[in-house]
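Supplementary material to the annual report.
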Amino acid sequence: MGTPVGQAVDGHGARQHRRAPTGPPGRGRRASALGLRRRRALLPWVLLAPALAVIAALLLFPLARIVWLSFREYRLRNLVSGESEFIGLANYVSLFTDSYLWRIALPNTVVFAAVAVVATVVLGTLVALLLSRLRPVTRVVVVSCVMVAWAMPAVSGTYVWLWIFDVDDGIVAQALMRLGVIGPEGYNWFADRLFFYAIVTLNVVHGGFPFVAVTVLAGLLTVPRELHEAALIDGAGAWKRFWHVTFPVLRPVFAVVTILSTIWDFKVFAQVYLMPGGGVGGSEMLNLGVWTYVSSFGQRDYGTGSAIAVVLTLLLLGVTAIYLRALFREDELR
Amino acid sequence: MSAPVDTDWEHRVRRARRHGDALRLTRLLGRAAGVTAILLFTLFPVYFMIASAFSGRMTSGIGTLVPRDPTLDNFVHVLTEGDFGLYMRNSLAVAGITVVGACLLSLLAAVAVARFRFRLRTSVLVMILIVQMVPLEALVIPLFLQVRDLRLLNTVLGLGIAYIALSLPLAVWMMRGFVAAVPKEVEEAAYIDGASWPVMFWRVLFPLVAPGLVATAIFSFIIAWNEFVLALTFMQQSDKYTVAVGLRRFFGEYANEWGHVMAASTLITLPVMVFFVLVQRWLAAGLVQGAVKG
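Predicted assembly:
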C-alpha cells in the first residue's frame, strides 16, 4: 500500500510533535505541551471538516434518505404536503413482483454492462498493445487523438451517434439504402431493443476505451523487456506472451480498469435517456438508472423510484466490494 | 563480401534476411492499418459533428460528409434565437462555483490525509472512495427534495453546491497525490524559519501544489460542464438551463434540425476538449491512483 505520509510511524505523528516547539513563539508560550499536542491532533480534522461536511450533507445524507423514502408512499401530493406514510416493504414487493424488472430493466442494465465492459476492456487493451509498439512520436499523436474521444461529453456524443444513425437522413441509413440492404422506407432501429443497445454500446465504448487504453499502455511500458525476450526465446507466440507474461504483471491494472468500467457502465444515464424511447416510462429500453428517474420524475412515484435506486445502489456496492477485495488481495501478493 | 561462391549458409542467411524484410513490412502495414482504424473510430464522430455544424441546410448525412460551402449560420442561430449563449453563461457560473469550492475543500482535505497520520485516516479515504461509486440517479431524488426545501431550485448556487459534492471525492484523491509529492523537508525549513502552520501553508505548500490545483480545477470544471441528470432536475425554467440540458431543446423542437444540434454540441465539446488535452496526464493518473493505492 502506498503510504505517502512521510516517515511518521506511530499513531499520531511523532514528527509533528518534534516540530511543534519551533512554531511561532507567541503560541508556544500560551499553550502547554499537551494542548499543542491536542491541537496537532485536531488540525487534520479541522482541515477535513469542510469537505466531509459537504460529502455528508450532499452524498451520505441523501443516501440514507433514499433508503428511508423507499419504505414510504411518496407521490406528488406528498411532495406538496411534505408528509408521507410508512408502508413497509410494499414498494419492494411491487418492484420484485413486477415483470418489468426481470424482463426489461435488469437485463438492460446487467447484460449491457457486461457486454460494454468486455468490449471496452478488450478494445482498450488491443489499442494499448498497438500503441506500445509505435515509435514515441507517432504514439503521442495517436494518444492525443484517442483522448479526443474521451473528452467528448456524454450528451453531445449521444447526439452525434443519434445523427449518424438517424432513421431517415442518417449516414448509416442512407448508406444501407444505397447498398439496397434496407428499403427506401427505412428501418426504425431505435424501436428494436437489440439495435438500440448496440448503438448505446457503440457510444459508451467510444467514450470509455481511451481510459483503458491509456492506463494499460502506462502499465505495458513498465513490463520489463527481458521477460518478453525470455518468453520469445522459449518459443512463445504473441498470444502466449500476452497471456503468460504481460497479463500476470498487469493484473492489478486490469482489475482497476475493469471494475471502474463496470461501475461506469452500470450508471449509464444520458446515453440511454436521450435516445428516442429511452426516457419514456413503459418503453422496453430503460435500464435501472433511467427507470428510477422516469418513475420518480416522470410518473411522480418517488417511493417506487427510491426502491429501484436502492436496488441499483446495492448492485453497485456489490461490484465495489468485489473490487476492493480484488485490490487488497493484490496488495497481499505483492 | 569476398566469397566467390555462394556457400549454402550464405544463401540461407540471405533468404532469412529477405524473409525478415517481408515480415517487417507486413508488421508495418498491420500497424498502419490498426492506427488508421483507431483514428477512424475515435475521430469520425467528432469530425462528423463539426462538419455538420458548419454545413448549411442539410437533407442527408452523406451530403455533409464533405461540407461544400461552410457557413456559420447554425452557430448564429443557436447563439441568438436558440439562447445558447445564455445556457453557456449559466454553465460557466455553475462551473465557477464548482471549481472554487472543489479546489478549496479538496486542497484542505488533501493536506489532512497526505500530511497527517490520525485515527480513521484510512477509513476516511476508503469512505471517500466508496461514496463516488453511488449512482447519481439514486441521489437525484433526495437531492431534489433537499434543494427544493432550501429554495435553491433554479438557482446557479444550488446546482453549483451539488457539483462540488460530486467532484470532491476524486478531487481529494488527485490533490492527495500532489500534496504528498512535496518533500516534507521544505515544510520543515519554513518552520525553522519561524513560520506558523498557516503561513507555511500559504507561502510554501500552496505555490508548490499549484499545478495540482490547476488539474483539479479543470477536472471539476469538466464535471460541472458535462453533468446532465441533476441539471435536468434542478433547472426547470428554460432561462436557467445549463448547456447539457439546453442542448435538448434543439432536438425535436425544429423537427431535428441536425445542423443546430451539432453546432450546439460543438460549442459544448470544444472547451472540454481543450481542457482535456491540458489535464489528461493527471486525470488518468488520478483515476488509477485513487483506485490502486490505499
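Chain B touches chain A through 105 residues (CB under 8 Å).
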